[in-house]
Amino acid sequence: MRLLFDENLSPQLVRRLADVFPGSVHVRDCGLASGADGAVWRHAREQGFVIVSKDEDFRHLSFLEGAPPKVVGIELGNCSTDLIEQLLRKRQVEMARFAADPAAAFLRLP
Predict the structure, then answer these.
(1) If you write DSSP's letter for every residue of 47-99 in order, what string do you get?
(2) How far apart are alpha carbons 103 and 110 in whole angstroms?
(3) Distance of alpha carbon 67 from alpha carbon 46, whole angstroms
């Protein structure tokens, strides 16, 4: 599973999680920094990424549009990159099941 990290998450997550989510990128690396949500959505759909974001807009898009792309919503509030990395490592099996489920569009990670 390849993740597309939204601009509200650190670009460092790509490198730090490369061992468990190879091929992942940050929106900055795709020329989508400060890009409209629709552009990020289309890029993720066309390139087969799962969007990871703290932005509620992607949650709404996932309910309106459905998958693809799938969306993982991080609901930790203001926290460190270390905490987000730990959360994604801890929940990687759950995320893999979510990615494999054709009916699933949004996964909330509290």
Answers:
(1) HTPEEEES-HHHHHHHHHH-SSSPEEEE---S--HHHHHHHHHHTHHHHHHHH
(2) 21
(3) 12
**Is 100 in contact with 26 (CB distance < 8 Å)?**
no
pLDDT digits (tens, 9 = 90+) for 33-67: 887 999 999 999 999 999 999 989 999 999 999 99
Q: Sign of the CA dihedral 27, 29, 34, 38?
A: negative
pLDDT of residue 19: 98
Contact 92, 47 (CB under 8 A): no
Ramachandran region of residue 25, left (φ > 0), alpha (ψ -120 to 50) or beta? beta
Triad 12, 71, 81: Cα angle to 5°: 25
**Six token digits for residue 74:** 């991080």
Q: Are strands 50-53 and 3-5 parallel, antiparallel or unpaired?
A: parallel
Task: Provide the token pair at 48.
Answer: 């087969």
pTM value is 0.95
The structure tokens 């991080």 sit at 74
Give the residue extent of every domain in the chain.
3-109
